[in-house]
Amino acid sequence: MLTIFLLVVPGILLLAGGAFFFRDTKPAQELLGRFFPPSVPANTASPVSTASAVEKPAYEIRDMKSSYTKAFNGVNLFVIQGTVGNVGKGPGRGIRVQATLLGKDNQALVDNTVFAGNLVDNTTLRHANRALIEGFLAVRYGERDVNRDIPAGTYLPFMVVFFDPPGKIEYFTVKALDAE
After folding, report:
1. Residues 29 and 84 placed together within one structural domain of the fold
2. Angstrom distance (rounded) from CA 109 to CA 107
3. What do you get for the CA distance between the two ends of the chain, in Å?
4. Is the pLDDT at 167 greater than 90, yes or no?
5. 134 and 170: one domain?
6. Residue 96 to residues 147, 159, 165: CA-CA distances in angstroms?
7. 65 and 22 in one domain?
8. In this structure, are residues 158 and 60 in contact, taking their beta carbons and an 8 Å threshold?
9. pLDDT (tens digit, 9 = 90+) per residue, 22-51?
C-alpha cells in the first residue's frame, strides 16, 4: 500500500505541475521550440486570401437596464432591455439574446432566449397575455426585418421578459448568440 502511495502521489504532483506550467501555450511552445527545433522554417505557410476567409460577426451588449413591472392580470414581470451590436468584421445573419436570472450564490433561477430587434411597448406589456408577448419577442427577423442581415457596426434593441420569476433575483447575465 505504501509503495503504491509513493508512486501515485509524485505522479499526480507532476501532472498538476505540468498542467499549471502549460496552461498558457505561448511560453510552453517557446520552451518546447528550444529543446525540439522545428524541422522546417516557421514561416513557410502560404498566405490565406482574406476574400476566401469567412468573417464571423462578434457581438457586444450595452445600455442594459432592468425593471420590475406588474401586469394588470397580477403577473409580476422582470424586464431587461438593451442594445446588441455586430462589432465583428462581417455581416451577421441574426442575433439571439439569452438572459439568465441568478439568485443567491449565483445559482441560476431561470433563463430565457429572444431575438434581437423586438420590443414591446409598456401598454402592451402590462395588458397583453403571456403568449402574445412571448410570441412577439420570438419573431426571428425582428420588427421590420432588422435582424436578418446585420452589417458590422449595427446595433439592435432587445427586450427579455420573465413572467413571475422564481426566488429573489440577485444578478442577471445576458449574452448574444448567432440566430442560426
Report:
1. no
2. 6
3. 56
4. no
5. yes
6. 9, 11, 21
7. no
8. no
9. 555 455 555 545 555 554 444 444 444 444
Strands across the sheet containing 108-115 = 108-115, 95-102, 171-178
Residue 51 in domain = no
Model pTM above 0.70: no
Residues forming a β-bridge with 176:
97
Give the CA distances from residue 48 to residues 32, 53, 90, in Å, rounded to whole numbers and listed in that order.
Answer: 27, 7, 17
Does some domain include residue 50?
no
Cell of 106: 449565483
Residue 134 has pLDDT above 70, yes or no: yes
Domain that holds residue 16: 2-35
Are 22 and 98 part of one and the same domain?
no
Query: Are the C-beta atoms of residues 22 and 28 closer than 8 Å to each other?
Result: yes
Same domain? For 79 and 16 the reply is: no
Domain count, the chain: 2
Going through 15-141 in order, the beta strands assigned E by DSSP cover 59-70, 76-86, 95-102, 108-115
Q: State whether 80 and 116 are in the same domain.
A: yes
Average pLDDT over residues 98-111: 94
Q: Return the half-sphere exposure (C-beta side, CA atoms, 13 A cut-off) of residue 28.
A: 9
pLDDT tens digit sequence for 105-118? 889 999 999 999 99
CA 56 to chain centroid, in Å, comes to 15
Which CATH number does the domain housing residue 88 bear? 2.60.40
